[in-house]
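testing teh design pipeline on a random one, pls ignore if ur not involved
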């Protein structure tokens, strides 16, 4: 049965609120971008995020979200997602996903990018490229009223030739006045998930996590947040907040200086 999305659809005024939240979040990512280099600690990145957000009168959504202790997620190398900023210094050869979510006037913007630190291995470059291409392949197939399952189908086509794992445990999500809401947006075709249509007015994220090796992850029992690949191989991710409109998908979190569709890492 196809579920109704009626209760999730935003009116014009609410769409503008989401546009403003996405725009601020993207500005924030551009603000920290030049600093994401060898020698910075992930805790310093977190401080930059916190300062810029609060200086502009907004709220970093991760801080205290279900007990999360910092203002952004920094997921280095084999960390799939939900890495907690700490004293780890980024080094030449690392890859790091920085995932930023802001609350602007009660509405959420959510996005992430994986950054290459200096000269990285071929494998690191490939998994980053694959995750980026998966996000845009998924965006490319979006049409008003299309089925959520088409997203996973597009992603698996991109990842298959690489033989990379597509994370299943963590999914994209509806976004609005709360961080994670209906619908779930799986990045893998799975008939257990609902086939809700992506109707105009629906706002959601797509955020594929791609692993060099197996798709499974393990949560660090010491912090109950950090998710690492089960085989300690590299993982990369990109995320945008997307509003479906009558004309098609509108990306709400486009940065000035970030990688564009077709970018080669
Ligand atoms: N930003 C993540 C997402 O894309 C969620 C992070 S939850 C946190 O959904 F608590 F770890 F911040
Ligand atoms: Co998200
Ligand atoms: Co996010």
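output:
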């Amino acid at each position: 049965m196809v579920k109704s999305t009626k209760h999730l659809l935003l009116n014009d005024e609410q769409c503008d609120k989401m546009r403003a939240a996405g725009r601020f979040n993207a500005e924030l990512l551009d603000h920290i971008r030049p600093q994401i280099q060898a020698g910075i600690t992930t805790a310093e990145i977190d401080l930059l995020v916190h300062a810029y957000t609060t200086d502009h009168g907004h709220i970093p959504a991760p801080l205290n979200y279900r007990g999360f202790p910092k203002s952004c997620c920094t997921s280095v190398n084999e960390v799939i997602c939900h890495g907690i900023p700490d004293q780890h210094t980024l080094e030449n050869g690392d890859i790091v996903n920085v995932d930023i979510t802001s609350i602007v006037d009660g509405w959420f913007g959510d996005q992430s990018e994986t950054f290459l630190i200096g000269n990285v291995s071929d494998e690191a470059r490939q998994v980053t490229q694959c995750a980026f291409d998966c996000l845009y392949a998924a965006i490319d197939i979006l049409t008003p009223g299309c089925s959520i399952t088409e997203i996973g189908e597009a992603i698996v086509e991109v990842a298959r030739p690489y033989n990379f794992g597509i994370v299943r445990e963590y999914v994209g999500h509806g976004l609005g006045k709360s961080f994670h809401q209906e619908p779930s947006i799986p990045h893998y075709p799975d008939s257990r998930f609902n086939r809700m249509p992506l109707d105009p007015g629906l706002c959601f994220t797509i955020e594929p996590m791609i692993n060099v090796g197996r798709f499974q992850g393990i949560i660090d029992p010491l912090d109950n947040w950090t998710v690492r690949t089960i085989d300690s191989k590299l993982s990369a991710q990109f995320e945008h907040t997307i509003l479906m409109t009558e004309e098609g998908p509108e990306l709400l979190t486009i940065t000035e200086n970030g990688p564009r569709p077709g970018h080669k890492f």
